[in-house]
Amino acid sequence: MERQHRPFHILVVEDSPTQAQRARLILENHGHRVTVARDGVEGYTAAMATPFDLVLSDVNMPHMDGFELCRRLKDDPRTRYIPFLIVTERDRVTDLIQALGVGADNFLTKPYGEDILRLRVDRLLNDIAAWKARTGASGGMLLPRPEELVLGFERGQIVELLMGSAQRLEQEIQAVAEVSLMLTLDRSLDEIETYVAERIWALTDAECAAILTWPGAGRAASQRIHSGDPLVVQAVGSAIYSLSYWLRAQLSGAERERDLREFPVAEVEPLADLAQQFGVASCLVAPLEERGAPVGAIVGCYGPQHRLTQEERRRMFALSCQAAVALENRRLFEASERAAAELEQAYRAVKEANKEAMFMLAAAVEARDGFTGAHLYRVQGYVEAIAVHLGLSPETVDELGYSSIMHDVGKLLIPDSVLGKPGKLTEAEWQVMRQHPEFGYRILSQKEFFATAREVALCHHERWDGAGYPRGLRGEQIPLAARITAVADIYDALTTERPYKQAWTEQEALAEILRLRGTHLDPTIVDVFRDLHQDHIIARIRQQQPA
Fold it and tell me: Is the whole-model pTM more than 0.70?
C-alpha cells in the first residue's frame, strides 16, 4: 500500500528540453507538481526559493553540474533533507560513487523507462513520508538508511558511514549497477532471479540465498536458491513451498514491514531444521514489491558467528529494490510480447479472411463472364513479379498482389445483358460498362485493409496520357497499384480467348503492350514487364495457371 497522501512538488533539473519534458510528463501523469530548471544554477536558485519535496537532476549540465548542485543543497541546513535523485550514465560506477559522496539519496541510469522513474520517486517519497510519520520530524532523511542512522549526523559522517573503504564501496555500487543494468538487457526471468540469488550469496557472505515470488497478476510462482553447499540448497529446496507461504503471511497485511527483517531460523518453521543440520542461525528477509504490494522476497541465511554489517544490509535492500524493478519490467515485457504475438496472429487471421472474401468476390465476377479464377491468379502473379522487380518490400508485393484481383469487382453490378453480350457493345451499353470502376470503388468498404484494392478498382482504366476513365487521371496521379494492374490485366486479356475474340500469341500481346507504352501505360512498368517477359518469368506464370 503506497504511503503518498498528497501531490508532491518535484524539481527537475535537466538541460535537455526533450528529456526535461519527458520527465515532466511522466511525473505529472503520476499526480505530481513539477518545476523544470535548465541547469544547476537555475535549479539551485529554485530550490532556495521553493520548498520542494524531491529534486531529480541530471549530472552533465552547463554552469553547474548535478554533483555540485547536490553538494550545495546537502550542505545547506534549509535543503539538506530534500531527497535528491541523480541521473547518471549507464555503467559509470565512478558516477555512482561520486553521487553518494555528495549526498545523493538514489540514482537512475540512462536511458530509464517510465516505470523505473515512477518507482524510484515513489520509494523515496514514501519512505520519507513514513519516516516523518514515525518520528514527527519535519525534515527528510538520506537513503539508503541503516536503522541506526540519526539526523544529528553531519553529512560528512554519513558519507563516511556509507562509503567505508573506496574498494568495498565500489564493489557495492558495481553490484547494484549490474542489477540495474538487467533492466535494459534482454534477460529472461530465470536469468534475473538466478543472478540476484548469486549476488546475495556473494555480497552478504550468506550460507544460502534465495529469491522467491508467488503467483498473481500475471506472475507465476518461482524460486531460485544459491549456496556454496549443495546440501543446503537441497534442504532449502525441500521446504521452499512452505517457506513461500510463511513469508507471504509475514510480509502481507496492513501492519507489514516494508524494510529488511531479521528472523532467528528457529522461528522460521519451514527452515528450523537448518539450524541443527547446517549451523544456520538467522534469516534476513527483504520484500520484493510491485506497485506498493509484496509479490515475493529475497532471503539470506547466516551462521551463528556472522554479524550482519550495515553495508550488507544496504546491499540486501538495494538488491531487493533493483530486483523488484527488473522482474516487474521483464514480466511486463514478456506480457507485451505475448499480447503482440496474439495480436499479430489475430491480424493475420483477419487478413487471410479478408483476402479470401476478396477472391470470392473476384471469382464471382469471373463466373459471370463464364471463366474460372485462373485469370485472377495470372494477373496476381504478373503484378507481384513486377512489384518484386521494382524493389518493393515483401509486404507491399503481397498487398499489391491480392488487391489486383479486385480490378473488375464492379462488374458485379453490370447487367447480364451488357456483361454477357457476345457482340460489340452499343454506345449506351459502353456507358453502362464504363461505370464498373465506380461501382467497384463503392462495393469495397472504407476499411483500411481495402484501401489499395479500392485504388485498383477505381483507377485501372485510367491512362498515362490522361485519356482514360472514370476521372481522367494522368501520369503519376494514377496510383502505382492501378498502373501495374493495368499492364497485367491488358496482357492477360489479350492472351485469353473471349466470346468476342481469339487469344493473341504471347509475342503479339507483348508487342501491343510496347505499343501502348507512354500513352495508355506507364513507360517504367512496361519496361519492367518487357524484361520479365524476356526472362521467361511471364511464361512460367502462365504455365502455372493455364487458360
Answer: no
